Amino acid sequence: MKSKTAYINGIIYTEYQRYEQHALLIDDDKVAGIVPQDAVPESYVTVDVEGANICPGLIDLQIYGTGQDLFSADLTKDSIARIEQQLLQQGCTAFNLTLATNTLDVFREAITVYKEAAPKVSMGLHLEGPFLNPIKRGAHPAELIKKASIGLLSDVLEGNEEWVTMMTIAPEVNDQECIDYLIERGILVSAGHSAATYKEATLAFDHGVRTVTHLWNAMSPLHHRDVGLPGAAFNHDEVCASIIADGVHVDFEAIRISKEMMGERLFLITDAVGACEKGIYKHVLNGDHFVLPDGTLSGSAMTMLGSVRNCVQKVGIPLDEALRMAILYPARLMDRHDIGNLNSGSIANVLFFDNEYQVKRVLFQGEQVV
């Protein structure tokens, strides 16, 4: 039997609209609409959310793990399930499960496990590497970084295009035919861990690279004689960029400048990892971020809702726009119109949070999971 619920007495944010004194209608697993509170149909059960903010579920296009789980170090269905459940608790209802540079065997095994798990919260895998520029490798092992070829790409991806939704590469050290190969298979190509010049980056953007991975981190600098990858992203009309709003990976003033330059093309990711003592990536929690044993910055400990809070409180971005950076813009980049909004007919992934940015309630496909 289908359930019909009207959520009242909240402030509703969806795309470019903000509603007060309205009700969010959920019919089973879909959004049925937003109506004035005095126009809720009699067939709906009302739930008073007591002033909470209501928005679509948050979307993270780059996350490797949570808590004590790092997918690349525990390639199991149980690991994926735990990560999904932890993210739902945080209000993140869609994400790209990410693997950093590793052996191709690990990538193949990860894809196999992911297919078997058939996760519902994760939208697909984001392979960050191994086709990067070693001089901007960051925490990625230099010995595992490779130059892409059609043979290597097809070896990993052939028949798995449905499961790999995104790949980060360094465009200046990889041939255009390899980028074309990925694009033709519907994979979102992002420029990252790259020493690209302004001209190299712009050329890549003009030929199908649609976004940039963690702006400012592990890339050519914004120099006054060559503004590099950041400058190319700023000056391009269409390319997007993700940014880590933890105040550690990127200073909040740099986020403010980036937002002024890129507007709606800038979106949030957590780049979050899980604590790990085995495998290639041994992530050690260092206060509010993770490092490798040698101290190299390796990942964040952020949540998406914490990123929204930082954008509002530390950067001065209005709440409605900070939410779009965490919801609408990544959904748009992934060409997903059934999530990231509260339009009638969209999947009922909904976050309710208070003014202290604490999760109060989460709906996933219409079912309350928090």
UniProtKB/TrEMBL annotation:
Binding of Zn(2+), residues: 128, 193, 214
Cofactor note: Binds 1 divalent metal cation per subunit.
Alphabetical list of InterPro entries matching this protein: Amidohydro-rel (IPR006680), GlcNAc_6-P_deAcase (IPR003764), Metal-dep_hydrolase_composite (IPR011059), Metal_Hydrolase (IPR032466)
Binding site for substrate: 139, 217-218, 225, 249, 297-299
Keyword terms: Carbohydrate metabolism, Hydrolase, Metal-binding
Residue ranges of domain Amidohydrolase-related in the record: 54-369
Cofactor needs: a divalent metal cation
Entry's Gene Ontology molecular function annotations: metal ion binding; N-acetylglucosamine-6-phosphate deacetylase activity
Catalytic residues (positions): 271
Pfam families associated with the record: Amidohydro_1
UniProt similarity note: Belongs to the metallo-dependent hydrolases superfamily. NagA family.
Protein name: N-acetylglucosamine-6-phosphate deacetylase
Organism: Sphingobacterium lactis
